[in-house]
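Ticket #4471: structure export looks truncated?
Reporter: QA, pipeline team
Priority: medium

Steps to reproduce: submit the single chain below to the structure queue and open the exported record.
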Amino acid sequence: MADDVETISLTEAAERLDVHYMTAYRYVRTGRLHATKKGGQWVVPVSEVENFNTASETNERPVRGELIPKLLEARLLAGDENGSFQLLDEAHTAGASPEELFIDLLAPAMSSVGQRWHDGEISIADEHLATATALRVVGRFGPKLATRGRSRGTIILAGVSDDHHSVPTAILRDLLRSRRFDVLDLGAHTPVDSIIDRAKQVDDLIAVGIAVTNPDNEHTVTETLQRLDGALSVPVILGGGAIQGADHARSLGPCTYSESARHALELFDAAHRAASEPK
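Actual output as written to the record:
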């Protein structure tokens, strides 16, 4: 922040915004109000407070659902685990469902991070920091989404060898657990032998989910699908940003194609229904 920019304390900013100090602090932590620390104290540009008030009065500020992914993206790129968690927690408290939290808020934020890295706007270090922060946030949020009740069966999730993105399966893991599935998330870069070995240890396996984010990894995906088809008798649900439609999925090997995270949840529900039918 330039030295010639007029600033005020966060306490005064809260007074001008007519909110409690902790509310103003939450605005800062979640990226809605720009502030910096000076001499151990938060200071806010006067122009930020004026713009905040003006936008509120004229209804120009984006609605909450539209605003969160961009704010979340900024917090993830800053490595701000607490600020990121708070954004999702506020949305959850306000009534957002688990699907809305992860699919409509977190997933778009991470998608934007990935696109910006691909376009050269941010570094690979920035992308790794955002990913690591997102995983920690998902880990903290998971227990809040757990539901009680009888298990509907077990699902195994994994990314194939040479696919190093673990956020997609982490998100899907907690959404499935919120639907009372037991989930074994083997994470990214998982050899097919490890998937098969773990699957054969499960008595109530419903399906296997495979996430693919690396578009240069088709040979490994094909080998994985063929090996799973020969070794297991449950559906293999394939999805991820590197799969360009149902025809592409079918060309890679035996699988059921998932076009989105929500579609994947529907397919796992369908796999449960099929497994529950009398033989």
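Status: closed, not a bug. The export was complete when the record was re-opened. Leaving a note from the reviewer for reference: Confidence is low (pLDDT under 50) at residues 57-64.
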